[in-house]
Structures are given as C-alpha cells and as structure tokens.
Specification:
This protein is α/β, with parallel strands linked by helices. Among the domains are: about 30 residues, no CATH class; about 45 residues; about 170 residues, P-loop containing nucleotide triphosphate hydrolases (Rossmann fold), CATH 3.40.50; about 180 residues, P-loop containing nucleotide triphosphate hydrolases (Rossmann fold), CATH 3.40.50. Helices cover about 45% and strands about 10% of the residues. The protein is built from 24 helices and 18 strands. The strands form 4 sheets. It has an 8-stranded mixed beta sheet with strand order 3-10-4-9-8-5-7-6, with helices on both faces. Helix 8 packs across helix 12 and helix 9 packs parallel to helix 10. The longest helix is centred in the first third of the chain and has 42 residues. It starts with a helix and ends with a strand. About 30% of the residues are buried. Keywords: ATP-binding, Helicase, Hydrolase, mRNA processing, mRNA splicing, Nucleotide-binding, Nucleus. Its EC number is 3.6.4.13. Pfam families: DDX23, DEAD, Helicase_C.
Length: about 700
Amino acid sequence: MAAIVATVADRVETGTSAGIMTGTNAVPRPAAVPNQDPSKPKQPLSLEELMKKHERAKEESNKPKFMSKKKREALAARLAAEEKAQKEQQEKELRDKRKQLEREARDARFGEGLAWQTEDERNAELKDIRKRYFGRQREKRKIRRMNDKKFVFDWDEKDDTSTDYNPLYKEKHEVQLFGRGHIAGIDVVQQLKDKGEFYEAMLEKRRSEEQKATHEAARRRDARDQAKMAKQRHDTRHWSEKPLDEMTNRDWRIFREDFNIACKGGNIPPPLRSWDEAGLNPEMLKAIQKLGFENPTPIQRAAIPIGLNNRDIIGVAETGSGKTLAFVLPLLNWIISLPQLVREQDIDNGPYAVILAPTRDLAQQIEDEANKFARPLGVRLVSVIGGHSREDQSFKLNQGCEVVIATPGRLIDVLDNHYMVLNQCSYIVMDEADRMLDMGFEPEVQRILEYIPVSNMKPDTDEAEDQHLLAENSRNKAKYRQTVLFTATMPTSVERLARTYLRRPATVNIGVAGRAADRVEQRVLMLSEKQKRNELVKLLDSMEPPVIIFVNQKKGADVLTKSLEKMGYRASALHGGKSQDLRERALSQLKDKTKDILVATDVAGRGIDIKGISMVINYDMAKNIEDYTHRIGRTGRAGSSGVAVTFLTEEDSKVFWDLKEMLKSSKNSVCPRELEQHPEAQHKPGTAVNKFGRKETL
C-alpha cells in the first residue's frame, strides 16, 4: 500500500501522462472531466479510486479470453517446441558434464595425455620394454621320461612354426568341380526339388481354371494351417487366455487334468470352458445366469457337449458333483428346439423324455432342479412317484407333458394301467443307476425300456460316434434314441445294463469311481455302544446346523429323534416307514431351518441335496462301503467343504478294510491307529492269510 501511494504521488508531481504500474499491470490515468473548471486547481486522485481501478484491471486480466482453434494449436505447438528445446538443452548439459567427469577420471588414473590408450596397448608396451632390458625368457623343454611307453605323435601347437608365414595352412583350398552343392554336382536335395518343380509345372499346364482356383485355395489353406501350427508350437499362454479356435491338443489335455476329467470313447467333443461356449439356447443361458451358476462343474463341462451331440453317455462322478444339470440342460435344449405347435399335437403320444430315479426323494429333487429351467422355457414336467395319488398323477399326464420324472415301480404301474404311453420317447436318463439296481429294480428298468420304441435305436456302428451325423439327426423329434446313465460307482450290474441298452457310449469319469470327494474331511472314532450317545452330544454342541445323522434301523431313527428332542435339539426323522407327506415335510423343515438335525436311514443317503450341510454323523456305520460313500456325500457338495464323523464298533468289522483304504486314499483324512492296526483291517473280507504269510481267497 505504501509503494502504491509513493508511486501515485511521484507520477502526480512529475505530471507524466503514463499509467501507474503495479506489478505487471498498467493502470492508466483517468481522463479529464470535460466540464471541469480550468481556473480551479487539479485535484489528485483518491487512493480508494486507484485501488478500485487496479482491482478491476486485475479481474479483467484474470478472465478467460476466447481463442480460436488456430491460435490454440499455435500456442500448443510453441509450448511443445519450447519444452522440447529445454529438454534437449538439459540433456546436452548432462552429456557434457558426464564427458567432463570421465575425462577428469581418466586423467587422474592414467595421467594426462594417456587416456586415449587402451589397457591392452599399455600392457603390450610394458611387455616390450621388459624384453628389451631383461632379455627373452626361454621356456624349458619338457623331457619325456624313459618309462613313458606311450609315444605322443601329435605336435604341440607352440612348436608349429609354419602358421607364421605360410597362408595355405590358414586357408584351406576348396575343390571346385562341376555342379552345385555336393562334389561333382551330385545333390540329391536339389534333384528332388527340380523334379517336384517339373511335375508341378506340367500339372499347372493341364489344370482348368476351376481346378487352378481350387488348388490355389488349398495351397493358401495349407499355408495358413502351417503358420497356425508354427504359432501354436511357440505359444506359451495358458488355456484360459486363448480363444476357443486356438486351443491345441496339449491345452485340452492340461484342461482335463486341471478338472480331473477322464473320457473314453471315439470322437468325443472337447469339454466346456464356460457357459458361453456350450451352444445352448439364449433363453437357457439367461436362466443359468439368473440362477447364479457362474461356471460349470467338471461333470457338466464334460457331459453337456456330449449330450448336445445326441450321444449315449455313462457318467461316473462323485456325489454332489452337479450331475442333475449335466443331463437336464441337454434334454431341455433339445425340447425347446422343437416347434410349439408340434409339441401340442404330440400330447397323446406321451412324453419326449423319461428320467428314472431310485427313490421318491431323489425324483422330487430332480423335479425341483429341472423346474427352475423348465418353467421359464415353457416345458412341462410331471413326477410319477409312490406316496401320491395315482389319479392326480394320471390327470396331469392326460393334460400333456414333455418330461416324466419317475421311480421304476410307480412308472410300471402307470404304464400297465395305460395311463401313459411312450410312443415318442427318445431320451432316457437313469440317475443313480447303481443304487437302482442294488434295490432290485433291474427287472422294472428292463420292462420300462421295452415299452420304448426300438425303431429309432442307434446303429451299433461308427455312425453312433459320428458327431456331424448325430447333430444333424437331433434337429427333429424323430431323432435317434439317447440313453444317459449316471452313477457314483460302477459295479458289474451297471456294466451289464450299459452293454445291453447303450450304443457306443462315451464314458466320462470325474475323479475315482466309488471314492468320496476330497472336500470331505472324514473322522473315525472307535467307540462302544454306550459311548455313542455322549460323543454325539459333544459333536452337536460344537457344530453349526444343519446336520444329518444316519442310523441303520427305522426304530433306531425314531428313538434317537425323541431323545434329541428331549435334550432340547430341534430334530426330525426320515425313513422308509413314514408316509410321503411326512418325508417331504422332514426335508422341507431341514431346508427352511425350522429343524437343525435330520435323523435318517439310507433313504436319504443317495441323491438328497440340501445346501449347507456342515456335518454328517454316521451314528451307525453303513453295512458296505458304497452306502458309506453316499452318506458322507451329503456334505461337501457343489464345491464346498464338509465333515463326516463315523462311530465304529467291533460289530462293523466287515467294513474295516475298505474304510481303512478309503481313509488312506483321502487327502485330508487320517486313519486312526486303532483302525489301522486292527486285525480285521489287515486283509480284505473273504481272504485269509496262510502259514506262509500269503493272502488266499476263501
């Protein structure tokens, strides 16, 4: 403020007409008032007015001013040029500075004027000086000992004096004869090349224009394929980073190893990497995304492409691996490809597909899972199982449906009473086939398959493996009959059934048949009958619901359920002695968390899928290892982990050996010492050890 006042006073005294400068902005003098009386003395400008004018000028200069595009480009170019010049100047200064430092360092090390010499040159000069004044050091000749019997005929390279003056020893003379390549013109490679060019030129003259175009296209295709193969040989990307058309056989092999997939059979299509590559109907893909299925499971990756090709399948996978969607999705995809009018006209001919399940509970579970996709797509499903009114089921069948989900016994009853026919059934699924045959349903299954027409059976030839032929055939309702068989184990009875009714099937193995999932931690406790109840209470107090407890007897399930309810636990029972309504109620109570514990027999051991089962307790050990495998498969499903606890007594000695082998093969389970060292666990049931220590089959 003082500087401004001094400047103003100075300008007023000197009478200059220049503006007042403040910083870089000039404030001009105010113009004379035209009506001012000249006789009156001039009044100096007030300080406040000068300050206001200065502020107004500053605001005007700070306001953004419009610049045309040309001016902006010119300004940007000028700024860029200035920046570049400044950068180059800095780099030049740095280079000069570095050179100066290097020069000073060389002078300090070697002395001024010797920095241009290399170290080798200086060493050579010092060596010559030493030779001049000290003389040449003569090497002593090596004297061969008299006892050296082996004479060395080769010259020492140091003794060879001919290389100093004779250039012939340095450059060998090449023989120049007629021809190229080999001596005397005998070049086999060149002869074959000339022969090929001769025949190619001769054929080129004889080809027509159409043949020339075809030949050129084939040549380009071969060149493209060779370039692609050369690129693939040096491609080190992971299979997840490659598009589908760039996958090599090695990538598919690594992919199958990553998901533990093993396939047998000819012309098997590659597995799915994602849902987008499945070739499913867009509406079905929307339903998959809506239901939250992000990625296919291993059995779905391998089985869905085979099912979409109308190929017979034998699927062997661990429990809880997602087998239901593996056969439901290809089935629904084929049905919705048929026109709606055709489907309505064929109501009287029966369903297009039949899904067989060993138990009512598994059939209802398949119906629930399939309806999640079938209802949005307009596909009608009907379940034909025991425990429900036959008249209600026949009424639903008369209204028409595309898919029937049934147990073998009730389906035979319906077919024998002519409530339904299978005149156009061309898709048969047998889920849990091993359990179905173990329960004695093999005659019923064979009778059901006899009801299905044989006019559309696949031929037992290579045509049953031809992908293109099968895909073309599956585009209409009169396609080849497709039989799909899913199982967790592969006993002889299942193999016999597959050989009889399947044509050139593709076998898909996920993991090891009959083995529990590695996600299930198996714990075994050696107890007496009296200790079981106390140990069970300890486990229930430390667990998170829901929990399934398996027993062997129906009466034992009811007694244990009542005991748990008296102790304050929310428990329900499920076994074959209860009606279908009570069984469904027990399952729904466990699913909606009204009950925390389900006490069940082997009825719930197969196929029942309840999400979030944290623990399975085998209060009574199963009678065989197959039932044990399916029991513990109720936990650790769909990629989650689980715990299976088994109470063993001396009465379970028949399964000791199988259980020990299963625990040893599991990655996250430990075989207790009492079981491992038990005499009954040392040899397989049905064998004995003779006096020589060898096992013999009894």
